[in-house]
Write the structure tokens for this entry.
Amino acid sequence: MAIKQHSVLPGFGLSLGYTLLYLSLIVLLPLSALVIKVTHMEWAAFWHAVTEPRVLASYRVTFGASLIAATLNLVFGLLLAWVLVRYPFPGKRLVDALVDLPFALPTAVAGIALATLYAPNGSIGRWLDPLGIKVAFTPLGIVFALTFITLPFVVRTVQPVLQDLETELEEAAASLGATRWQVFQRVILPTLLPALLTGFALAFARAIGEYGSVIFIAGNMPFVSEITPLMIISKLEQYDYLGATAIALVMLAVSFVMLLVINGLQWWSAKRLGRRK
Amino acid sequence: MSIEVRQINKRFGDFVALDDINLDIQTGELLALLGPSGCGKTTLLRIIAGLETPDRGSILFHGEDATDTHVRERQVGFVFQHYALFRHMTVFENVAFGLRVRPKHTRPTDAAIKQKVHTLLELVQLDWLADRYPAQLSGGQRQRIALARALAVEPRVLLLDEPFGALDTKVRKELRRWLRRLHDEMHITSVFVTHDQEEALEVADRVVVMNKGRIEQTGTPEQVYDQPATPFVYQFLGDVNLFHSRVHEGWAEVGGTRFAAPEAGDKAVIYVRPHEIDIQRIATDKALAGVITHVRLLGATVRLEVNVAAGDPVEVELTRERYTEGRWSVGEAVWLSPREARVYAG
């Protein structure tokens, strides 16, 4: 990267230095501490800690539920964004603001609220219980909580792209003989795809790390509804710091891969749509 | 294919976009809808295309009522001012779009599509860009691709909404000549919207001048320029000087020249184009006396601004030769008399 010698914007050195220091202190230092801590472990012990049957089961719950939640929000987030951008209706601003609520709400509050609603004696759970549907204290409850928490991601990534989508494109496609469905499938969806995938990846990454809202509704039964972040907590409670760190490293690796994927998608979409950044 | 526009009305809220429009478009002609922005020309084009529905009135294609036909079935090619190319598709796929979305039983084979697209790309002289994305093309190239895309579905009518509006002057001129040649080869009934009178006069077979949701005049470029039906048409098609005069026994007079004013009442407004004014150094009987205040060299022509005693400054246009012969300069006293004019009631 070439550093400009004569920039019209002053303070390049100072601001870059400050940014790097800040990032190092806030992000890199704790993460490297994590990695260094793990290097104290024997390889066999590390492998044992991260592949314990109970831990493996927690991966399945976490990744499975996160995938389902992110997929649900991919579909309904698109629908919500579509409605918010395309149609004027009374209370639109309110609905728009509601989308951000899962961001703003303390996750524990969301967890308690969901658990109260969906418990077998809760106001919704009481109607579902006779039908044999158990939400609270099952993996289904985890999916519910994660769907709630990750709702804003797809909506907020798709919304601006949808807003920029000229109606002329749709008119052009229609004048060329395309049906409504063909217009959606061949013109709108491909244009939204990068934003959709980014929103999906963000939602998925967030869901993997979610703790607060899940533990109240999950019931936390070993092998059934224990999530990976909870495994870390329970290891810590047993003073198994190394074991906890080992699992944390696995989570870190997954998050890192997710970030790479997100950046890759953004790069790909920028290239494809010819926007220069 | 001919198009008939019958008593079309369209309002947007309180704004009357189109007020009782009637228009016949002949098979194979290239028609320009000309007018200032907000005159309703784009709305009319969009109604013909089926992208907008009229409040009242009907559109007939080849004698058949097409008012309620969806844009998808109307078989019109529409070209947008800002191209509206699909950014995620290559140039090839953009042009092929209209063929690929056809129902299975009428869809051409891949080989046929490929051949057709390449023929069209050759027609617009951009065959070498087939694998590029729209973002990699210049404005002029994009508009030619948009045209090829519209032609791919073999439309019965070609509609162009300010097709050169987003391009710079030089590309614009090239492209409109090219469009004229293309039309001469293909003879497809075409309507294009423009606010540029030079463009309309140069390209079109017939020009429809619109103002405030109404048609002011329809005619060949010569007709609308030489015999403007209304003061608006006269003013819109070129620069103009206005003179006010009283009418005596059916004659109005400016600078010693008398013009017949049979339809004007008591007072008349006389419209004179800048190149229709004679300029002299010798005082003649009734010529308008004035002083040259500005000299502007505009390439082949020269424009003089002359302050006269009464009314607005008068613009006089001379050819470069006449200007050099006369050696006119700022501050000189001159006498003006119009050679030709149009007289309207004032």
The radius of gyration of chain A is 23 Å.
